[in-house]
## 1
Amino acid sequence: MALCKDPASPPDGLRVLYRDAWMAAVYKPSGLAVHPSPLVRDAPTMLSGLRDLLGQPVFTVHRLDRPTSGLMLVALDTDSARQLCQQFRDQRVAKTYLAVVRGWPDAAGAIDYPVPTAGGTRRLPARSRFRRLATVELPLPCGPYTTSRYALMELQPETGRYHQLRRHLKHLAHPVIGDTEYGDSRHNRLFREHFGLHRLLLQSVRLRLEHPRHGRPLELSCPPDEALVGFFPDAAEACQAGTGP
């Protein structure tokens, strides 16, 4: 793996983790939009930051929600962009996320539950696998309970639907902390008031794919955000162990 030799980060926290002649892997911080939109018309975006950082055009090949942090790929030429986009469309890219959720889910399992399209006009089949990596019980009351339970989850979406992981965890009754659309407002408020966390605790941490130039397997990763793992004493060991396909 050819690591980028210039790890300098722009002020928004965007940084390059890997770069070669055809593609780059970057860390996108929570709250940074990938593309310009009416909601972020005057704000910096990942694309504009990367163009400045790399000094060349870049092409997106997949997406992360604005509140989600972590690993993203970009192509550095149109041929590589087409090849990488096809891998994502064919579901040949293995994606792994970490999330902090309310409660203690089962140790492992799968969620097979259709989710609506972005426009909400129809539902599409969607499947995600999960593994519970660590748990914690905090001495903080929430609702009728005198303590609050949370889990660090490893998530692997097998399909790529709109807000799939966030919707699936809501369906499982273990929503992601900091999710203002599908989450639990009481627990979100607890994290804001006690820990000063105003973000979604969901991060892309690993991608497995074929290199767009030579086709050899490539695995890319980024370290977990402290905001996610800092609550769990055994998080480092748990994340190291949670490296299944």
Note: The chain is about 20% helix and 30% strand.
## 2
Amino acid sequence: MLPITNLLKCNIMKVNVNAISAFTVDGKGGNIAGLVLDAGQYTSQQKQQIATQSNFSETAFVSHSQIAEFKLDFYTPVKQIPHCGHATIATFSYLKSQGLIDGETSSKETIDGVRQIFFDGDMAFMEQKPGKWSYTDDELEIANALNIETKKFKSSPVIVNTGNSFVLVELGSIKELQDLAPNFDLVREISEKYLLIGFYVYVRTPNATTIATTRMFAPLYGIQEESATGMAAGPLAWWLNTKDPGIGTTFMIRQGDFMDVPSSSNLHAMISKGEKVSNIFVGGSGSFLHKLEITI
């Protein structure tokens, strides 16, 4: 029998993690995601270890699927998450650049079904579920969590879901958005209460190229602030179009400008309206940065 020390050595695994930035602006900024290929060999516990050590806001694990072209699992540094926009864009941008995808369409299997992917030039777009929404009765709690008064709300906060749930909070000016200093303990409590990923706070700029400028806070998932959140940009685009169809069906959303270390991101949203539901796609560009090796 091998000594215990040798048995421990035999269980050590080295994992290559690709670092890819998604929703970049002219190849810069964006939100960095981890990407692990051939991930079918890892258990859920090992995936969480890899994501924790990598310490990206989300890491995508790609494996074989019997119902889509690829299966994707997403983990933050602290827990698994149903969907992740920037990690999806990072993954499919990389797969396309490496010649692992033929043609201009693909698909992903996630823990709640299949989503379509398409490519437009250097941008990858991901499908999101039709939107659902509900108002919250806790405006004062939300205001306290953001350290502002309720009179700062431009409209009533609303919980919107296109696969993940976020509370959308509209403010009246860019300065108010920039000056936010949330109470992250309260943001976490409200997020847990309503099963939210986090708060997506925005200011509308309907006369500009960018339809809205945003910030996203998700301490429940170990993310104080994120520079690009595709799964929040989709609900916001759908909600703005639902409330005001005159704004159109194709827009750009800006994020990441007001972080402690700014990382500007452009998120492109498209609403394709059918008879009963609206198909939502969010996309952007991805840039490979480097590889790192994780030992678990």
Note: The helical segments are 4-10, 44-54, 85-97, 139-145, 174-178, 184-193, 230-243.
